[in-house]
Amino acid sequence: MSANERPLIGSVFERKTPSTPTVPSSRFKGTPGTGFPAVQHRSKSAFARAREEIKGIGGERLNGVPSVVPSQAPRPPPFVDTKPIPTDTDALRSQISEENERKIASMSQEEIEKERQEILDQLGSGTGELLMRIREARQRKAGQEGSVVEEKPVPEKDGSGPHQIAEHRIVHPKPVAPGLAAKPGVLRVRSLENIGQSAPSPILVPSSSTRPSSRTGRKLRFAEVTPDDVHVYESAPVSPKRTAFALPPPPDIKDDSIVSLGVYKGDAVPKKRPYPTDSPTDEKAINQTTKGDPEPEEGTPEDIRRRYFPNIPANDPSLAWMESASSDADPSAPRFDLQGTSIPASLSATLPSHLGLHHHADGNRAGYTLDDMFLLSRSTVPAQRASMLGILAKIARRLGRQIREDDCHDKIVELVGKEGELRKHILSAGLAAIDQVGSLGARAVEVIWECLVEWDAPTSELEGIELMLSPDIVSSMQLDYFLPRVEEMFAQSALPKESLAQLLAVVHRLAQQSNDLAETIMNTPRLIPTIMRTFVLTPIPALADSPLPKPSALQLLITLASASRTNALALVEPADALLRFVTLLPDSSPFPQSLATSLLTHTLRFYTTLASYGLYSHIATSASQYFSALGKYVLSTTSAQLRIAWASLVEAWIVCATDPHATTPPHEVLWSQVCGWGWAGEVRALREGLTEDEADRDVWAAIWNAEAAWLEGAKINGVRGGEEERAELLQVLGIAFRHPSKGEVGLEFKVVRNSLDAIQKCLGDIPGTGAAVERNLRTIARHGHVLASALRLLLACLPPWNGTSLTPPFDLPFSDLVGLCGQLAKHLIWTLPDSAPHLQVHLRPLTNLLVHFHGISRHMFANEPRLAQGLAFLPRLLPGDEAAALVMADTISLVTPDFAHVPHKALPQDSIITMDILKPFFEHTIRPNADVYISPLHASPDSIRRSTTLRLPGAGAGGGEDKQNPKTGLPLPRDWLTAPLTHLLRSGTSPVFRALPTTWDASEVDVVRATLLLLYAARFVLWNHGPKSFVPGPAEVVFACMKVCMLEHGAGNATGSGGMDSSEEVFRDEFVEKLMRELLAPYKPSPPSSSSTSQSKDHAQQIPLSELPRRTSLEVASLPYLQSTNTPFYQFYTDLVALYAAVSFAHPIFGALLLPPLAMRYAEDYRKLVWQESEDGGGAAAGVVRTIRVGVEDVLCTGIGLEGGEGKPDVREYLYPVERDASLLAAYVQALFPRTGTRSVQGFLKLVAVHHVACTIWGDLEAGVSPQNEDANVSWRSEPPQPPLAGPSPSSYSQAAPGTSQSISPSDNLKIKLLRSVLARGEGSSTLREILLYQQSPRGAFLWPPACYEGGGEGEGEGTAGEGIGLDGWRAGRLEFVRRSIGHEVAEKVKGVFMQN
């Protein structure tokens, strides 16, 4: 055994046996005389039986101390006294003193010294001094009280010798009143005040001891102390199981080494209850005292004490749990009851405690705060945890409702704006308990269901799009742990049916979130088989306790299959099991008919989803007899949903049969089989019993789509392009769609007319926000689906296109449909998905309507209106419409120079401009990712072969987070017409140049020419035939021309066999210059004299700016191009300026394109780049400002003119508000007065510099009011009103007397410095004269140069700004300002300038 291990057996002592054997007493003393022992009941404890034996002996309860006489007379201990111990303190002290004296008297000197040494070893060397001080203090106190204690010797009793038999006394404890303190295990702490009030029990001295001899004789002696001699400090809060910490009192002499722990207070240590007495009189006194007090209020701590603990004092620490504890909780925090209802603050303080709303940290107030609930939701008590989760679930429902509904009646005002954060916390609390069982697990499922499913209740049935709602909430669920737990819960089926249904809805909501999550669900081991076994493959016939099948489980399969082709392939195998719902029709099903109909409807929808990928269509052949019976049953049923599901499945299978090679595997269903099954006749028979009511409109749309699919397939597989099939169907449609003008109106014509009226009404009543928006969109989508189906059927009834217009085969309200499509194209309804992307799915029927209408338009309209229609419809198409978008984009092949009215003499002689070279760029723009193919709303033979998903992509640019590789290019950006320029600028990384067809051979110049010609023609046809809102705006056209100028040498050269001509920049090409000049012409100001108009404007498209879309900012217009690379427009402009300085050689169009960012509504950084860096002589813009030679008439104005004006370009967007930056003003002065040998700024830039310098110096210009326009009331558009600069006003000029001296305010320092600089630099120059006489106003007519340089053109008819040639008005004011600020001498020098005409 090692030294560190303890022995199993300790010390062994031999017991001394008495000489006289002890006679054992019989344990069956009280046995009856029968000779048999009494029956011993095991239900009684040994203690109870002992008490019965005592009672049986015949004695009452002993009040005295019984004597125990041992069988052997042991050696009596020398200090055992058998007389009763007095209860008086003085008497007790005297008795102890007598005993000590007797003991000392009987001891030898050696024993006394030995005992003394032991005391010193235990208590220290200062023990004697301490005891002496205590004795002196007690004597002083006794002397002060006037009582003297006399110490008398206690005579020895007879028989006190060593051979006397010692009498052992057993003192029974006094009875304790029932209460908390009487319970076992509760420690009772006696306070110092109780010393001496009750006698302690005598010490039992055993006759023999097994303790070692070294410890047997050791005795501890303590001095008698009083409460005044002991200082009590609380080392911790007093509790029933914690005693007070006692320390000796401080000495009388001050000792700095002793640190005080505080001053003792009487109430610091709660007083303990006194031990109850045996006297009934005392108990009566206590009861009388209690009864004498007033009755406390019911439910208060005092009431509880008197009711359940009457014998315990009120200040007992064991009852501290009943007292009201202080709380740091925020009183304004909302509190909730057990139903999740908010409790007002005024009510929470008055509610009684029996409602169960006080079981939390702050017991003073009723109700639970959110912090309380989140804390208790982690409780180790399952019932408490389940209760809190139940409350959180109800709160989550209210929060979700108040964030969805603007007029929520039970809104929690304190939590408005915090719903999202609370949703995450509540969901976390539910997820933490998802692995629990019983009611706790059910509550956890309810919390998760409320936070995920019910929170987004309006979208719970939304299919066809990735919801992508609250991605942070879904990502916090840790699905790699959550989904396996869900599978276990489904497999065990231990939760209630309602909880399992909620859990299934949670899984469905996760599948709706995104295609990636749907794939995660599919890849979770055993999850889908378990769901099938639990919710679908239930026993048939159903047992008494077995669950019924859930249609929601079939909806989950539909959602998973629509997410991806991979998921659909995995779900083909369990699809066979669903035939049970087809073979057992609702009229013969063991399930309730409504449930059987729902199961059959969802099964048909699931088969339709698989058929949209070309999958599982063989079931139509292998189970043809069952589907034949189903078709007959559908004709007899009144269920609209079942009819729609059956017609949609027939449509999908017909599409699969149209091209059997497109199915997977091929030839699963053939066209001959479709004809043999007679589906066309069954679909036609579905019309029976339908009305024009709104409830049947979806059925009409399903019928028309199925018949359209039949006719489209017949064109490919039928005889003579399906002529016979069309003729057969038109016999029915001709009557059904009869126009009112031809007799009795047809039923189906009424259906179209009613849907047309309904959708027009909804388009005019779309609310701005709230749940009403989605409800309105659902209605619009429903009626739009009806109209799109009717147009698809009409298009299918037309024979194959042969280039000639045809008469419509049946009647439709075409004029109203034309107006509706035009209204839809420019309606703001397309902007709603910007705030809620999932609303995009409701717009798919509207894009389908536009697509089919555009298909009919070639039979109804000429080329120009048709092109305008395609250009207007293309930006509205959504993901899934890529095939239709490519068809619309083919209409650009109509654009030729003749089509655009370009003169032949302006055409290049070296090549022919054709739009075919642009098709590869537009195809990539529409479908940028070849690996993603989103199925259209109605499947086609091409889509069933190539589709990768049936759902629209979720929120994000291009439907994906990767901007460099988006899932789709729809909807198209506004700059889609200039997409070829984008690919040219990024030719090194553009995938288009790596996948060009071998027949494509064009140069860079050819691509630019075709693009600019298309842009020019598009603006022309849209302005004349289409919605003007689609006309490219000034900023968009200017930015397109900027991209042309950014093309450098050799951009995109190795493209075809001929390559690209890189001998010169593209912008120098003659035809490119011509097209850019024509494109920019409408945005140039018109001089006062029309005769000065350049020849290029003879063919320019005159377009008022006021009627163009107000996208006037270049920073906004450049976003579609720059956003993908996160490049700011300022960086693009910096590169453009550097390129101009390097290669332009003062090209006029290139120089004009640099001016628009210098307008005053743009940031001053653009102006500093051109003006300051140019004058500093360094940087990319060195010398640029002196090479831009653009006249005022060639300035590009991308603004929107003046309010109330004619909508014409106005150069004052560069002039107002007046420049305030001192560094820019200095750059203007330096450009106007350059160093010797340097040319000054010319043209329009000179006007800009003179204007800002003059308006800063002269007070009459800074106010923005010139004399001839003081009464004008026209405000400058696109800029807020600007306060005038500080300085003297025109009236102050006339008030100052000539030659007087006047102090200059600090606000005039900039003006004075600028004036000094102008006068010093420009002495004797014409530019100085122009600054001194400059006139301009932000209101009224613009003063063109040179009139603005000559004081408003007095005497020349160019203006009326001056009031004469004399020194009065603004001339006198300016001269006076020069005199006051510079001096009289300088004023006299410039006086002649003001005197001149």
From TrEMBL:
Its main location: nucleus. Residues 1126-1254 form the RPAP1/MINIYO-like TPR repeats domain. Residues 95-136 form the RPAP1 N-terminal domain. Residues 206-215 have a biased composition (Low complexity). It is found in: Nucleus. Keywords: Nucleus, Transcription. It comes from Hydnomerulius pinastri MD-312. GO terms for biological process: transcription by RNA polymerase II. Residues 1-40, 58-88, 138-163, 196-223, 265-308, 948-972, 1083-1104, 1268-1305 are annotated as: Disordered. This is RNA polymerase II-associated protein 1 C-terminal domain-containing protein. InterPro entries: RPAP1/Rba50, RPAP1_C, RPAP1_N, TPR_RPAP1/MINIYO-like. Belongs to the RPAP1 family. Residues 1293-1305 have a biased composition (Polar residues). Residues 335-399 form the RPAP1 C-terminal domain.
